[in-house]
Amino acid sequence: MAQVLLRNLFKRFDKTVAVNNLSLEIKDREFMVLVGPSGCGKTTALRMIAGLEEVSDGDILIGERVVNNVSPKDRDIAMVFQNYALYPHMTVFENMAFGLKLRKVPKADIQKRVTDAAALLGIEVLLQRRPGQLSGGQRQRVALGRAIVREPQVFLMDEPLSNLDAKLRVQTRAELIKLHRRLGITTVYVTHDQVEAMTMGDRIAVMQGGVLQQCAPPMEIYQHPVNMFVAGFIGTPSMNFLKATLNKSGDGYSIDCGAFTVSAPAAQAGKLDAYVGKPVIFGVRPADIFDKSLKNPIEAIEGNIVRTQVDVSEPMGDIITLYLTAGIHSLVATVDAETQAKDGQALDVLFDLAKTHLFDPETEQAIY
Amino acid sequence: MRPQRRTSLSRALIVILLLVSAVVALTPLVWLVAATTKGPDDLFHYTFFAPRFSAQNYHDLFTKVPFLRYLTNSLFVTGATVIVQLFFSSLAGFALAKYEFVGKKVVMVIMLTTLLIPGQVVMAPLYEQLYHLGLVDTRLGLIIPGAVSVFGIFLFRQSILQVPDELLQAARLDGCSEFRIYWDIVMPVTRPMIGAFCLISFMAAWNNFLWPQILLHHDDKFTLPIALNQMIGIYGNQYGMLMAGTLVSVLPVAILFLVLQREFVAGLTAGAVKG
Q1: Model's pTM, two decimal places?
Q2: Which residue in A5, A245, B138, B225 could disulfide with B209, CB within 3.0 to 4.6 Å?
Q3: What is the CA angle A82-A83-A85, rounded to 5?
Q4: Is B189 on the interface with A (CB under 8 A)?
Q5: How, if at all, do strands A154-158 and A186-191 pair?
Q6: Model confidence pLDDT, tens digit, residues A327-346
Q7: What is the ipTM metric for this complex?
Q8: What does the alpha-carbon distance between residue B148 and residue B75 come to, in Å, rounded to a whole number?
């Protein structure tokens, strides 16, 4: 086991900077998820750790060792690829044993390690089959098995679940978490799926445009995003962003969104003086908007009630996603399925003000 | 007409057409086989097989002329050419498909340009080169000029381009050297192309007539096409024996095709449909 340290890492392709000054410490035994939209540099960063891309600048340390110039095979890592990259002409056993054979591991040892890993993943019966005879889920397990038998210091996983169907993805996600807990191997996991990131990572590193935006445990990222990008990227449906103006009202502060005004949480008062009278971006997550007519965890008070119009409602079973309009603003809310809201009708909603966010429109950084 | 009836009618037409084509294609071969089993008196008396079977032609073929030596020469030269050509073509194709290096595009363009030059044009300078190297009238002189096939390189490059990069990267992480990646991963994955290429390369080398005719002077090194040509001059009236020689010289290609035909077709249609 080992920690992975990325120090001021750069990757340039001609004029494009794919990874821009990335510094990240992945602790020993940690499950770190690199997440971001396509082209954010997460896969490039992972490939640099693997040694499949050269580092333009900066250092990569695995354990205590700088590995910038160490060949992939000598980095003591194992990687699971998005398309599994199983050798099609070899059986599952041969696929899993190939790396060990090249490292001249004794035959008996190879046999034991492969059968142990196969048992762990429940693929013992597949050992004599070829990848072409396996389903997507089975191939995914074999790819994992190939990584496990190597007993590496670090697992690198490049969107390993993205080729699976939705049901299998959820199932495998849980299995991967269990596997990580059992083996305790430091893992760097790349995904563009924020649900995977939230559910799997000990910590999440959110990237955009090659730059690390925020690295923190999932709930901290969700509750305290550092900027609008992170706030919008993490959470489904995305956070609502409304253009507003911050005003002082009596002892407190109010956020004037035009069609309605809400109070700023008193706890954040210290951060707001500099923004009084200035435009701000008000952020509220769909899950923090409630149908006033239902029994809610928050009370209706002056400053958190907003009159809206229901445009569309999408029943999801346990919740209903409402697309609302309040003046010029469009809002998405996920409310309890008991709501009586009907398309085209007015609906009073409550904002859980303690969980709302305010952003600086120029820097897009969070004010609170 | 009902669609089902129309289908069976067009099916029948296709079968008839194929049967006629098969008869046209196979008749000369059957005639050849028949001619080798007839004695000199029966040769023109019966169109196809005679009632009396004679192995005389084969006996003559292997006793009157050193046919076994010619056969061995051809097998050796062709086998060596195919192996060497396969090795270098696939290796170069691999490099051009999967590595980035300065001048790669220029190399490709120059290589492809050479495809436009007819082989006969380079025979004179090639002969001179081999003369200075002391390779005239040697089997090596037949093998070396054929060691690299631009067509083969291009064929392998196209085929190897289809191999996902991740497969190579996985092998690199597994601990493969670059040559091992080529040998253990790329070659097995491109097996259909290898089958197709072997067949094309084998046929070209086996049937090669002009270059061996120019290069080889002594009949102990002759390959089958030259030997057969020489036999026409010496044993011009012994048709049965010449036919036996022709049949024996055709057999290896036919056998190879039968063995490799599935891979040959797979190789030619590789990449045509989504896998």
Answers
A1: 0.83
A2: B225
A3: 110
A4: yes
A5: parallel
A6: 999 999 999 999 998 999 99
A7: 0.84
A8: 19
